[in-house]
Design a protein that fits this description.
By secondary structure, this protein is α+β, with helices and mostly antiparallel strands. It has 3 domains: 172 residues, FAD/NAD(P)-binding domain; 108 residues, protoporphyrinogen ix oxidase, domain 3 (Orthogonal Bundle); 99 residues, Protoporphyrinogen oxidase, mitochondrial, domain 2 (Polyamine Oxidase, Chain A, domain 2). The protein has 15 helices and 23 strands. It has a 7-stranded mixed beta sheet with strand order 8-7-18-19-20-17-21, sandwiched between helices. Strands 12-2-1-16-23-22 form a 6-stranded mixed beta sheet, covered by helices on one side. A 3-stranded antiparallel beta sheet has the order 5-11-6, with no helix packed on it. Helix 1 links the parallel strand 1 and strand 2. Helix 1 packs parallel to helix 15 and helix 3 packs across helix 4. The protein is globular. It starts with 5 loop residues before the first strand and ends in an 11-residue tail after the last helix. Bound molecules: flavin-adenine dinucleotide. The site of flavin-adenine dinucleotide has 35 residues, from helix 1, strand 17, strand 21 and helix 15.
């Protein structure tokens, strides 16, 4: 192998795996270097009560063509599943629970005076939200964060009572930390075109494919990792796990132990990246009870900041959400997400599950706690630095629907090698 043909991909999370696959298909010699003993990064599995479950990401946002195309190429398209069409619930700051408004995006209501919006935030706040209809479309159209956009168009009560629980539960940040264009591309353009935020939300929902806004794979989203790894092996990528890159420049990388691997570098790990880190803990419990068969809180519950007697920020009733999972076990599987500073135990998860589901539950038959560190977006988003390309969630924003298209885009801009292989 000539060094000039080689590309060294640093990091074996989904961004690195996808970039390595695209590069080898474009005819480059690819070496993928991963610090840990396993590939996949935040796409991972674990076993709870003998059932293989996603330990990290569990669904992807249905937008764009790249992810479905990749799943087809990986021969996983027949296993794409949509969640059960039941509303998630909102556990409000006063401790009561209501279904999340049906017509909403990130918690932003599409119909501010709908009954379910009034039930969730009260008539006064809903009337304030309706003012959005009277404001010129230009108002807040340049807002960078979801928090600013919603507060200026619909008022603080919508931001705090509806949007904050969704954003906190799904993205582990506050609305003021979440960039509109990263999480809802096209929403601000739709605001300008439609004249109100509510109409923009409705139009974005209509533009989305019919059905749920997210999808996953039967057997768990982590199956993508095995499929990608199998392709890398098939196409001849040299995969080196247990090898930490300690320095990198435009001519290659050095791994711990001192070995130098020369080649063009694609960083798919947040090496020397000045970006915020978010730590989050996920607890999954399995309970043996028929009490939950009626899915009392639909597919799950998002918790308003400040809600009393509950520490979790979100609960997913996994067996109510995914039919394939319910069909595979008589147990109920419940996943709770926590902020970093919480000492999470299966006991705490059990208590929170009872509060959030509004039922008394028997002690779990099994439980697992996984701690994660995620990297936020870099402030200076430029993907070529010192001759190295960067992909991964620090560049593209979090979530597979952002990470995968971005990694594919960067990989396709890298000159191809002599022999291209068929997809
Ligand atoms: C609990 C949880 C739930 C989530 N849920 C969802 C969801 O439902 N839907 C969704 O779309 N997204 C979800 N996400 C986010 C999504 O998983 C991530 O945005 C995505 O997986 C990031 O991929 P990545 O390749 O950029 O980074 P990572 O997966 O973090 O991969 C980076 C890799 O680089 C390796 N690495 C780091 N430093 C080095 C080094 N010096 N040398 C070599 N290797 C190194 C790491 O070990 C890791 O394997 C979730 C994340 C978590 C933690």
């Amino acid at each position: 192998m000539r060094d000039s043909d080689r590309v060294v991909v640093v990091g074996g999370g989904v961004a690195g795996l996808v970039a390595a696959r695209a590069l080898v298909l474009a005819g480059r010699d690819v070496v993928l270097v991963e610090r840990s003993a396993r590939l996949g990064g935040q796409l991972a599995s674990h076993s709870v009560a003998g059932i293989e479950l996603d330990a990290g990401a569990e669904a992807y946002a249905v937008r764009g063509e790249e992810l479905p195309r990749l799943l087809r190429a990986l021969k996983l398209a027949d296993d794409i599943v949509r969640p059960v069409a039941a509303p998630a619930w909102l556990h409000r700051a006063d401790g009561s629970a209501v279904p999340l408004p049906a017509t909403s995006l990130l918690g932003i209501p599409g119909v501010p005076l709908a009954r379910d919006v009034i039930d969730a935030i009260g008539l006064r706040a809903a009337l304030r939200a309706q003012l959005d209809n009277l404001l010129p479309g230009l108002v807040a159209s340049k807002a960078e964060t979801v928090g600013e956009l919603v507060r200026r168009r619909m008022g603080a009560a919508v931001r705090d009572g509806l949007v904050a629980p969704v954003v906190r539960g799904v993205h582990s940040v506050t609305p003021d930390e979440l960039e509109v264009d990263r999480v809802a591309p096209g929403l601000r353009t739709a605001l300008l075109r439609q004249g109100s935020l509510a109409a923009a939300v409705r139009s974005r929902r209509e533009a989305a494919p019919a059905g749920a806004l997210v999808a996953s794979l039967r057997g768990g989203l982590h199956r993508m990792v095995a499929a990608l790894a199998a392709d890398l092996e098939r196409f001849g990528v040299e995969v080196r796990t247990g090898a930490e890159v300690i320095s990198a420049d435009e001519r290659g990388v050095t791994i711990s132990g001192g070995e130098r691997i020369p080649g063009e570098v694609v960083l798919a790990a947040p090496l020397e990246v000045d970006a915020p880190r978010t730590r989050t803990t996920v607890a999954t419990i399995a309970v043996d009870t028929p009490e939950l068969a009626d899915a009392p809180r639909g597919t799950g519950v998002l918790v308003a900041p400040g809600a009393p007697e509950v520490t979790a920020r979100a609960l997913t009733h996994l067996t109510a959400k995914w039919e394939w999972l319910a069909a595979s076990t008589p147990l109920h599987l419940i996943r709770l997400s926590y902020d970093a500073d919480v000492d999470v135990t299966p006991d705490l998860a059990h208590r929170d599950a009872q509060t959030l589901l509004g039922r008394s539950l028997p002690a779990p038959v099994d439980g697992a706690v996984v701690r994660w560190e995620r990297v936020g977006r870099r402030a200076d988003a430029e993907h070529a630095i010192d001759g190295m390309r960067r992909v991964g969630e620090a560049e593209s924003g979090t979530g597979l629907a952002s990470v995968i298209p971005y990694a594919l885009g960067v990989a396709s801009a890298i000159p191809s090698g002599g022999e291209e292989q068929p997809d």
